[in-house]
Amino acid sequence: MSAADGALRRRLVATTLSIVALVAALAIPSLASAEPGSGSTRAQALARAVADGRVLDLSVYSPSMKRDVPVRVLVPADRSVPRPTLYLLNGAGGGEGTGHWFEQTDIVDFVADKNVNVVVPMRGAYSYYTDWVKVDPVLGRNKWTTFLTSELPPLIDKKLTTTGVNAIAGISMAGTSSLSLAESAPQLYRAVASYSGCAETSTNLGRLAIRAVVEGRGGGDIANIWGPVGSPGWRAHDPVVNAYKLRGKAIYISTGTGIPGPHDQLQSQGIDGKTTIYIDQIAVGGAIEAATHQCTLNLDRRLTQLGIPATVDYTPGTHAWPYWQDQLVKSWPMLERALTD
């Protein structure tokens, strides 16, 4: 066996192990939690923003889904209009539990001085924010592409007196969705950012990631998304296959390597003097991030082949909220330029 063959074999083995770990790990809902001790501070920041009128909790009716969708909007302290809009998507839980931007990050304080509206849908668990071809017995009617690209933006533009300039960003499951939404509505978004998203749907790795989220965590049937696995709809929604549709946009893609980074600690001393071991974040979160790292490498290569510029950030770390907050901050200058130029 040549050295090149040996290296290829090692990569294939490592990828296979990551896939196996991914399928098992994504069924664990407690993963990717915030760092200890920050929840009360964030709750206080949100309460202040509500009192100052910076938080708007809207109930938006979706004709395509035949239901109301809660949408949380952050506006800056400076109320001058018009302003551009950043659509910011939550991960697999869709913001329906505690795993969302307001609970897990400092988003409220971070955008206070930014001249942008931040719009966060607070539903969509395990949906991949796409239009499903069938109503799912467990996860219901999902027409998120229609809602996010056709139904919601005109209402936001009118209510907030926007500039009509938009960007979209998301984490994990919604990192995949953000790329796909930007490809499906190319005139709607000037910029797109994906943090730890597996940018594939028609490959074995991409399909396993979707199965782990939709079936493993949500109890739904992935055949109800785009048809049976392998049917044309899966390829039609693959961000790598459709990467050419991102041409002309500002693009930011990030992923951890799966190797523990600055936010990963084996032990943490609690206020009661006891030591807690964060094995799930390091071992399980590391395996998930190793898989998303592989997806990101594939998208990076495809964009390079197409001559489409993108900012791609590979940083040591696992599949966890502190890293996604870091990446929002890192990507902000690019997003801001795209929204205001």
UniProtKB/TrEMBL annotation:
Pfam families: Esterase. One of its GO terms (molecular function) is acyltransferase activity, transferring groups other than amino-acyl groups. It comes from Gordonia lacunae. This is Esterase. Signal peptide: none annotated. It comes from the Bacteria. InterPro entries: AB_hydrolase_fold, Esterase-like, Mycobacterial_A85_antigen.
